[in-house]
Amino acid sequence: MSAILIAAAVLGVLGLLCGLLLTVANKVFEIPANPQRDAVRACLPGANCGGCGFAGCDALADAIVENRAPISACPVGGQPVADQIAEIMGVEDLPDQVRNVATVVCQGSSERCRSKFPYHGIQDCVAASLVNDGNRSCKYACLGLGTCVRVCQFDAIHIDPYTGIAKVDPDKCQSCGACVNACPKSVLSLQPETVPVRLLCRAAEEGFLVSDNCKIGCIGCEHCANACKFGAITMVNHLPVFDMSKCVGCMMCAEECPTGAIWGDFDNRQIAEIDRDLCIGCTICKRTCKFEAISGELKQVHEVNEACTGCGECAKKCPKKAINMHVRKHVRDANAKVGTTKNDYAVPKAE
User: Fold this and answer.
1) What is the SS3 assignment for 57?
2) How far is residue 299's CA from residue 282's CA, in Å, rounded to a whole number?
3) Average pLDDT for residues 224-231, to the nearest whole number?
4) Which of 48, 163, 276, 332 could form a Cys-Cys staple with 56, CB 3.0–4.6 A?
């Protein structure tokens, strides 16, 4: 009995000594806290999604404080979190972020894109893609088996029961990119939320090679590139590529697309309006308009008709700031354009 008590006492003393030793070591080797880093970490949402390119929010906080990552690196927190971190880091005039959202680059619903064979395997896009590159006739199409749904931490994606393809809720999307990385068909991509036009097809083929498989695919006809009067579209691998630095939001590419492969934000399409009290009839707007949507003679009040595409170039060039842009109430009428002649722009001789 005494031996057991002695053993217990010895173990207790050893435990006490080890505890004291660890406490001393903790004090000696303690890393000083960084209040700035802790404040940055407190601002981050804690999703640990990896969308910033770091292992988690702790790693991102370290990187921001050490200037290895930009203040706006957190896609989940967006502009509000970036503004908070900028204040902590003492950064002024932080530019506004363009929020990205996951976009499904496919419109190949079950009615538009036929199936090659009935698939009865594992309900996962990765598994299905291993069987003859998937069961959809278009090899670029969304398989609709929900791999993206399962990896999304924010419940921002679901499979539409009517179309059979993925659908993103932009209000819930946090731009983490998990769905983009998980999709074996590269159907999802992160795109700016506010762009006026989007290409919703990835079929890098042309003509009947696309149309035989999908009714709404891009056939590489180049109508969009020809319709763009601002040089914002180039064709690469039979697909239009948009240069958003040149795009003015006229949406003529989407209007001219014969298959509907290009989406345009027509609900927010604009139209120019000339303030009659400010217009001096200089004809600059008329000469600037590429769509023959402005009429009027020199030194007379000009008018904008329904052929206006809302590109806004006339408003930029007006020297009197007499042109305002607002969301149009009616669908654009291409037949409303006016003809122009050289006499329209002729400057009368001085008397």
Assistant:
1) helix
2) 6
3) 96
4) 48
